[in-house]
Amino acid sequence: MANDLSGGFTNPSQDAARAFRQIMDAMARPGRIVSLSGLTPPEPLSRAQANIALTLFDHTTKISLKAHYDNEAVKTWLSFHTGTNFTSPELADFIICDHDGIGAINALKQGSNEYPDQSATVIVGYPKLDHGQCQLSGPGIKDKVMVSITEISPFRNGQAMFPLGVDFMLTCDDKLMGLPRTTKMEMC
Amino acid sequence: MYVAVKGGEKAIANAHRWLDEERRGPVKIKALSIDQIKGQMSLAVSRVMAEGSLYDPELAALAIKQSQGDLIEAIFLIRAYRTTLPRFGTSLPIDTDSMQCKRRISATFKDIPGGQILGPTFDYTHRLLNFKLLADGEVMEAVNQSPEPSSMPHILELLNNDGLIQQEKATSERPHDLTREPLTLPADRAVRLQALTRGDEGFLLGLGYSTQRGYARNHAFVGELRIGFVEVEMTIPELGFSIVIGRIEISECETVNQFQGSKTEPAQFTRGYGLVFGQQERKSIAMALVDRALRWKELGEDNLGAAAQDEEFVLYHCDNIQATGFVEHIKLPHYVDFQSELELVRKLRHDAAELEKASE
Amino acid sequence: MSNDYNFAYLDEQTKRMIRRGLLKSIAIPGYQVPFASREMPMPYGWGTGGVQVTSACLVPEDKIKVIDQGADDTTNAVSIRQFFEKTAKVETTTHTEKASLIQTRHRIPEHDLDENQILVYQVPIPEPLRFLEPRESETRKMHALTEYGLMHVKLYEDIAHHGHIATSYAYPVKVEGRYVMDPSPIPKFDNPKMSMCPALQLFGAGREQRLYAIPPYCEVISLDFEDHPFTRLKANAECELCSANNSYLDEVIIDDEGNRMFVCSDTHYCEARQADGHRGKRNRLDQEGYDATHI
Predict the structure, then answer these.
(1) Which of A30, A71, B129, B155 is the most exposed place for a label (fewest CB within 10 A)?
(2) Does residue B214 lie within any of the structural domains?
(3) Measured between CB atoms, does C139 come within 8 Å of chain A?
(4) Could you please report the per-residue DSSP string of C110-159?
(5) Contact residues, chain B, for C124 at CB < 8 Å
(6) Lowest model confidence (mean pLDDT) among B175-184, C20-29, C115-124
(7) Are B198 and B276 in contact (CB under 8 A)?
(8) In this structure, are B104 and B10 located in the same domain?
């Protein structure tokens, strides 16, 4: 049983700092794929998702695990390493789910006109992150960038008008790509 | 020949050494000990603990020593240290009913159950310099007149029992922590009281005074002022029950204020509240006045536009560490900004002169 | 000191709180995210916001540069640089192009920034509307409703009164067509450098408890009017040490008669130009008493 809780940061302060720089880079430059390795989380949590969790979650954050992420091993591991709280998706600061389980975005926290930052971030498991047929443009992107998103609607259905909205982090194993609310998406 | 000013690092190091020398003063004179400050400047220690939001007389005394007696600087040292401390948990609310009072007075009743206790106060001292203290004058020992009762009910609760004073509603809501969450407005009373208790004594004194002079006057009397030690309890999750983790000295002031009432609601007095670490009588009274003034909306009063009623104004300006930093920061180099203004003024003058020439 | 405190001074919980705030600020360019700013061991108004942002972003591999008024050697810049040397043991540099993270007060370096760099601004008053409306509750509403008429009225009154917009630093900008933002008290000469900048720009206001950001390649427009377009402003002179004619200049009084000279405010830019052999009129090699090591 002891092994179930292992696989966290070896040097929490510096590991979290390095992970954050990658996460920030990904969110500041949508379409850029960064690598977050070094952890061994329980299934089905990916290494990238685990890195994001250990870098950003603590007892002040509310987390929602959807579908197969909602299992005891994941919960115990996240509780042990972050002390975070679990809640339902509509109250959550962070939601962990797969790309086909995002659901209606307007059921999540999208912030208010005065405080659009009080909105959810969805940490999505994605089958493949690479170059592809989806064109991204907007803040953080010099011109445009092509990525392997196969369907736009899960990220845009029910997304509120800017500045309100939900931000996405797409993960696949140790890969992370940011998709903040400002990014324009177009299938080519 | 022009040589650009360099050597910032050396200048800073030298300034620090010089400061240290000034702090120490003449070396022929014995250095102050922390015990001396703690024991003989206890009111300064109280203020540093209160506005520093950290109950630790020893560290407060150290801060006073290190800051050459500049109390705002000492408060700053304590605050900066405090932020680095990990949180182990939250204590239970303290029970001031069971305070071991060294001072307890009421202005609204001649006598009170448990008695008025004058305690160690400057109140009736004639403010005459005591030249005996120039030499090391000995003190006369105080006579302890009566044993302290173990529990003293709050006077205003006696009024409460008769429905004569407005009821404070208990809440199970966890209060926001001003030092961990950003201040957002409107702020609830718990946040306001947190801001006031660590707010600058002088600022609150001035604001409290302004309410008495008519800027949102609220007709206050000190219903009860008590100073003494209370126990701090904390629930230890591993034990499943609470234990006493220490004792702190606090000053608590409840004011009885202007009564309210209407045809349907019987008349009732209202109240203001002040609670401060250490022996801080002046601060606790001022705090209660300002607290009461800030409650205008909740008590259905008019906003008279007075400073003490203005939550945003009071909460954004009562913190002396924020204030002193920003007020003093204008001594930092601003020459880039000044240069841009200089160029602009020159340009405006040049354009004006051109215009004048053209019209001639 | 370094042993008693966490990496880069702040505790991990505080860093996480700032990091979450920074990610939201990046997702909403130009919007001010409230954060529970901590009390730092330096006074409010002296860079506590910038220091907290830097501290939350720093990795051990960083090479940082700290400038105040464009200079690496002003006392506050020295003090903040020493703080990070002590608490994070990171390498420091004065070279703009070699730095991975630059913390600045009041200037943007002359040398173009690149994609591998982060520029952290120290901000005293983050609210561009503050001097028109002192209440946070009101200005927040104005941002929510995109109600920036008051700002335009103010700028237009300037024109009516002075013939020009009378704001020469902290000149308001609009980010990606949405939020009006205070660029911190940089001279308006620097404003155009913010737009389409390859580097990530982060802003921290400690006392006012606000974070905001401009992601890379964002459109940042200085507010103006068709008949009074925005113009950059600098002294009409060239640097007397390195002869640069396109850099922001400081005016230095050099003697009791009030004689003055113009020199680059960006000390590294000026030194690099001199090292490349550029010479200003007070700095010719033939001039008596010149000693490059003192400049």
Answers:
(1) B129
(2) yes
(3) no
(4) SSPP-TT-EEEEE-S---TTTTT---HHHHHHHHHTT--HHHHHHHHHHH
(5) 326, 329
(6) B175-184
(7) no
(8) no
Domains detected in chain A: 12-187 (3.40.50.11310)
Structure tokens at B354: 């051109």
Confidence (pLDDT) at C55 = 96
Instruction: Tell me if residue C242 is catalytic.
Output: yes
What would the pLDDT profile of C140-179 be if each residue is shown by its tens digit?
999 999 999 999 998 888 888 888 888 899 999 999 999 9
Active-site annotation holds for C57: no
Q: Do C31 and A116 touch (CB under 8 A)?
A: yes
pLDDT digits (tens, 9 = 90+) for C57-103: 999 999 999 999 999 988 889 999 999 999 999 999 999 999 999 99
Strand pairing partners for C19? none
- Hey, of C5, C139, C217, which one would you mutate to test binding to chain A, going by the most A CBs within 10 A of its CB? C217
Q: Is C218 a catalytic residue?
A: no
C95 in contact with A, Cβ within 8 Å = no
Q: How many domains does chain B have?
A: 2
Spatial contact of A116 and C31, defined as CB atoms under 8 Å apart:
yes
Q: Are A156 and A185 in contact (CB under 8 A)?
A: yes
Contact status of B299 with chain C (Cβ, < 8 Å)? no
For residues A52 and A176, the answer to whether their CB atoms sit within 8 Å is: yes
Q: Which of B8, B184, B328 sits opposite C78 (nearest CB)?
A: B8
Q: Is residue B334 part of a domain?
A: no
pLDDT for residue A185 is more than 60: yes
Chain C: closest CA distance from residue B193 (Å): 18
Model confidence, pTM: 0.88
Look at residue B251 and tell me if it is in a domain.
Answer: yes
Same domain, B17 and B39: yes
CB contact under 8 A, C59 and A14: yes
Identify whether residues B30 and B100 lie together within a single domain: no
pLDDT at site C285: 58
Same domain, B47 and B108: no
Interface touch A140/C27, C-beta < 8 Å: no
Contact C59 A21 (CB under 8 A): yes
Residues B104 and B53 in one domain: no
What integer pLDDT is reported at residue A173 of this predicted model? 96
Tokens 């989380």 correspond to A41
For B103, the domain range is 96-119+145-324
pLDDT above 50 for B312: yes
Confidence at residue A1, expressed as pLDDT on a 0 to 100 scale: 40
Pairwise CB contact (< 8 Å): B185 & C77: no
Q: To the nearest whole number, what is the mean pLDDT of chain B?
A: 89
Q: In this predicted structure, what is the pLDDT of residue B7?
A: 62
- Let me know whether B158 and B68 are in one domain: no
Cis amide bond preceding C198, omega within 30: no
State the smallest CA–CA distance between residue C84 and chain A in angstroms.
Answer: 15
pLDDT band at B114 (very low <50, low <70, confident <90, very high): confident
Distance in angstroms (rounded) separating the CA atoms of residues C248 and C242: 12
* Angle ∠(B245,B251,B256) on CA atoms, nearest 5: 130
Chain C closest CA to B1's CA: distance in Å? 7
Q: Are residues B105 and B58 in the same domain?
A: no
Residues B269-307: tens digit of each pLDDT: 899 999 999 999 999 999 999 999 999 998 888 899 999
CA dist., res. A29 & res. B218, Å (int): 57
Chain C nearest C-alpha distance from B191 (Å): 13
Tell me the sheet residues that pair with B254. B224, B273
Q: Does C30 qualify as catalytic in the annotation?
A: yes
Residue C150 contacts by C-beta under 8 Å, 6 or more apart in sequence?
C129, C132, C133, C142
ipTM over 0.90: yes
Is residue C270 part of the annotated active site? The answer reads yes
Residue in C24, C29, C58 nearest the CB of A139? C29
pLDDT reported for residue A2: 43
